[in-house]
Amino acid sequence: MLLNCYQNEFIEAGCDEAGRGCLAGPVFAAAVILPNDFSFEGLNDSKQLTHNQRTSLRPIIEKEALAWAVGSCDHEEIDEINILNASFLAMHRAIEKLQMLPQYLVIDGNRFRAYPKIPHSCIVKGDGKYLNIAAASILAKTHRDEYMTNLHVDFPHYNWQQNKGYPTKAHRTAVIEIGLSPFHRKTFNVSNPQLDIFSNTG
């Protein structure tokens, strides 16, 4: 069972990102401050949930959280400063938008660029350990999925509605056959799907 938060002395925000491994689109991040008594059965790391589960949990999190916010870095920023720094910047942007100032941050993963004047801890696989990070992972994922689904309307050849910009075999095939869209990350390499003998993605 996931714990509500990492520590109870200070107002804590959980932070996570979505879209680091994609070939196209922004990286999104979310920051969430939950009530101390918050609990909800089924809330977990977004990667452990189905699309429908994440979609149903999002409005609950957004309603029950004391504060939540989403930030992003677009594909051009990712190409300019690299995906790791873009992920940190997206988290900073989410934190900046919070309507309540957190006194402590818990970050999913093992690295983070310190946010000014707020101490933090990095938690490996934190989205499977603490509810506030799990909630942030769900908001980052669902907001990014929604963004990519909207982009799909104008760029249907890449099937972003389904793959959300991740490097599936079908997505990489489309890039090789059609070329890059204006929303692709130009610094990301697209491997030849024909050489991906053991891949069963599509």
Describe the structure.
Helix 2 packs across helix 3. Strands 3-2-1-4-5 form a 5-stranded mixed sheet. Residues 197-202 have low confidence and may be disordered. It folds into 2 domains: 12-151, Nucleotidyltransferase, domain 5, CATH 3.30.420.10; 154-195, no CATH class. The longest helix has 22 residues, at 131-152. The chain has helices at 51-64, 75-81, 83-97, 131-152, 160-163, 169-178; strands at residues 12-18, 27-33, 67-73, 104-108, 120-123. It has 202 residues and is an alpha/beta fold. Strand 1 (12-18) and strand 2 form a beta hairpin. The chain has 6 helices and 5 strands, in the order E-E-H-E-H-H-E-E-H-H-H. Keywords: Cytoplasm, Endonuclease, Hydrolase, Manganese, Metal-binding, Nuclease. This is Ribonuclease HII. InterPro entries: RNase_HII, RNase_HII/HIII, RNase_HII/HIII_dom, RNaseH-like_sf, RNaseH_sf. Residues 10-200 form the RNase H type-2 domain. Its EC number is 3.1.26.4.
